[in-house]
Write a structure and sequence with these properties.
Layout lengths: L1 E6 L8 H14 L3 E6 L5 H11 L5 E5 L6 H5 L4 E4 L8 H8 L3 E5 L13 E4 L3 H16 L8 H8 L2 H16 L4 H4 L16 H9 L5 H22 L22 H6 L10
Parallel strand pairs: 1-2, 1-4, 2-3, 4-5, 5-6
Helix pairs in contact: 1-2, 1-5, 9-10
């Protein structure tokens, strides 16, 4: 029996409508499969009605809202984590799922494609048919033993840690305050070697924006194209070589504060002599 876990706020932007439409089809195509759903929200009633309509009470378990400290106990009950979100900046929950040894099926929107390596995830477009197909491929792969989920925890632990986050945050502050050179901060090789800074051609950027959602992706691509055409117009009217650059003025340095301990240790001057 393959268990698919879903832990999410049951809102529209979290793809609950997609989930409601996909669950009956996934269970119909894969009889030895069940769902565990945890979370609360206005879309919970839609899931409950779907369960009643399709008589899936013995194959879909609704847990309701759970505490964060109980998330791990729910995740380890499953084999696959399904994340059908329509918009997502990062998706901490899929990192937690992979750390618990679950194969992740998620929509290819926002920053999700950059969170985990490809061998831990199966991507789907934010569409019902594609989500059903991706879930089916994941179920087949897990059942055939093609995915080594037992290694996920150690791999995720090396990729994400609060110590690493603290170091990267400290580096940002060092770059802003000028503690490290600007070229080093932006990842440029001052020795003339290849740059470590990530750069994307326009077509690559458009592909990434297009994956941000059904309608949002198209809107983002349209905005980027318009901005790029406007940039070309400005470059033609006023080339960058003809623009005066603002000089980099010297930064003001503050005098060191006086040492209070040294001032306290210094004896008071003698009083003036009496006349």
């Amino acid at each position: 029996m393959i268990t698919i876990v879903v832990i999410s706020r049951l809102f529209y932007n979290k793809g609950t409508d997609l989930l409601t439409a996909a669950i009956p089809r996934i269970l119909e195509n894969h009889p030895n499969t069940r769902f565990i759903i945890a979370g609360s929200g206005p879309k919970a009633i839609d899931l409950e009605q779907m369960i009643e309509t399709n008589v899936l009470q013995d194959r879909v378990e609704m847990l309701g809202p759970i505490r964060h400290e109980d998330v791990r106990d729910v995740m380890v009950r499953g084999h696959i984590y399904l994340h059908p979100s329509l918009t997502e900046a990062f998706g901490t929950v899929i990192v937690e799922a992979a750390s618990c040894g679950l194969y992740v099926v998620c929509t290819q929107v926002g920053g999700i494609p950059e969170v985990l390596p490809s061998h831990m995830t199966a991507f789907a477009k934010p569409e019902e048919d594609d989500l059903v197909l991706a879930a089916g491929r994941a179920i087949t792969a897990v059942r055939a033993g093609q995915v080594r989920t037992d290694r996920f925890h150690d791999q995720v632990r090396k990729m994400y840690s609060w110590a690493n986050v603290a170091l990267r945050t400290e580096r940002v502050y060092d770059g802003v305050t000028g503690a490290i050179p600007e070229r080093a901060f932006y990842g440029l090789d001052t020795a003339g070697g290849p740059s470590r800074a990530r750069g994307f051609a326009l077509i690559d950027r458009l592909k990434r924006y297009y994956g941000c959602g059904i309608w949002a992706g198209k809107l983002f691509c349209l905005c980027v194209v318009i901005d790029y055409l406007f940039f070309l117009l400005l470059e033609w009217c006023q080339p960058r070589d003809a623009i005066d650059l603002c000089p980099d003025w010297p930064r003001k340095t503050l005098a060191p504060a006086p040492d209070k301990k040294a001032s306290a240790a210094k004896p008071d001057p003698p009083p003036p002599p009496a006349l």
